[in-house]
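Entries read chain and fold; for instance:
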Amino acid sequence: MLCLILAIVLMAPALYRTFFYKAEVINFENDRKEIESFLTTVEYKESTSASRPDYRSSSIDLDNPDYSTAKTRLNPFPFNPNQLPADQWIKMGFTDKQVRSIKKYETKGGRFYTKQDVKKLWAISPEEYSIIESFIQLPDSMAVYERKKNYSKEPRVYQIVELNSADTVLLKTLPGIGSGYAAWIYNYRTKLGGFNSKQQLFEIKGMDSLRFSGIEPYIDINPWLIKKLNINTATFEQLSLHPYISNNVAISIVNYRNRHGKFLVIEDVMKSELVDEALFGKLAPYLKTQ
């Protein structure tokens, strides 16, 4: 019996596999399809990433994001900023607010002579300027601007202007003399009675050595055109209107004339209390006794 039982136990696994055990069949078809789909997706992403620009390396500079932003937005082209139409500024990529600021600068008389003048605009950031600098059609410095200005124009020929007869139109033909300054010269000449010396131009407000040296070769003076004051008939009001005669001096001349009679020669005016040799030297060309 023991041998029989032992034989059954030993043979049981073989009998079980033969008559009762069915091997489980695993279908890998679905898994295979999922794996193939995954591999296809990976290959597509790798191929597209190779043709797509790397923004981290080409467009965005993490060390200077302002420059990267400006470079992405701006599309400059060669231009002269003086009186550039607003739509052209906008076409380059500037905002409406920036363009309004630039145009406001121009309406106040602002003008761009060099590239540095554009750089000084607060509406344009340093990063934006660095992008458009090479497109600005202006010289880099005033020295270059002056050379170009001088070379581009033929030397102007000025005519000689006689100061005691010229009107404001003729005075404006002098170098560096505009409408305002021509009027100042004309008005001061009227008060004087005429110029006796070129140096008297320094008595006009705003005349300096630079302006004077520019016009001095082109001016002439005819002293015979000076209108003189008759110190024997001029009233206090007429005398005091002259630039060299103060109210007190005018009173002293009139008082002496009233006490002692007419002046025989113009040198007699020094007999009045307030006229000394220095003042007489300035007044002499403007005085007469008849």
Remarks:
- Confidence is low (pLDDT under 50) at residues 50-58.
- The longest strand covers residues 161-162.
